[in-house]
Amino acid sequence: MTITPTVTPELKALLRRVKLGRCLDTLPERLALAQTGQMGHAEFLELVLADEVTRRETSSADRRARTAGLDPTMTLDRWDDTTNITYDRATWNELCSLRFIDAGHNAVIMGPVGVGKTFLATALGHAAVRRRISVHFERCDRLLKRLRASRLDNSHDAEIRKLLRVDLLVIDDFGLQPMDSVDTADIYELIVERHRTAATVVTSNREPVEWLGLMADPLLAQSAIDRLQSAAHELVLDGESYRQRQKPAITNQPVDNSPVRPRSSRRRT
User: Fold this and answer.
1) Which pTM value belongs to this model?
2) Are residues 150 and 180 in the same domain?
3) Domain range spanning residue 227?
4) In Å, what is the CA distance from 136 to each residue of 7, 12, 97, 237, 256?
């Protein structure tokens, strides 16, 4: 007869005292495995500590992803590869290797509305975060609005420095709206200062040639976009809307059509 191993209160207290309390989540399972598999002491200890390391790394990556502004649902393992969306797989595989970040190169992800540009850009951010690469994700209009507001409290230079220091800057929905001279100057500074020293990913519904007409200063616009493109992998998506696959599903559970009784307003005594 197999005796189910138990975790004593004393052991629980000791684990919590040395800040290993989360080991208790998997410890009963690991004790059972050690017993049935006739595992040695060192092997068992290695297994338990490996669980704790994995948990801490996952928790740390989740915190960094939140700080980076990444949607937690848009990770590579959640991308539905069966959808009818076409793109160059060789280019995507190269981006997934994250070598472009080490090289200080860029990525421009283009395509019509809803094909998954934001999803893929966010997924690259998550992959980078798990490798402890610093990431910042922000929609272009919000980024420019924030930078404009920072001029009012004299924090603009500090905000620009933060964006220049990050290893991977993801600018989502670039070129959707016209940019005045202030916005154009900010985009110019970010792209030029990061050129071939840090990686930038841009998603857009428009082609780069269309961006030029949306920026107030043609010279700054041409200089910035030329630098961005000259060091960029371009990934073009086409096909059906990916968002249609994310619509809420209709369940087949029976609906309770019984009348709802009004609550009595009389207080009980």
Assistant:
1) 0.75
2) yes
3) 76-243
4) 43, 39, 19, 23, 46
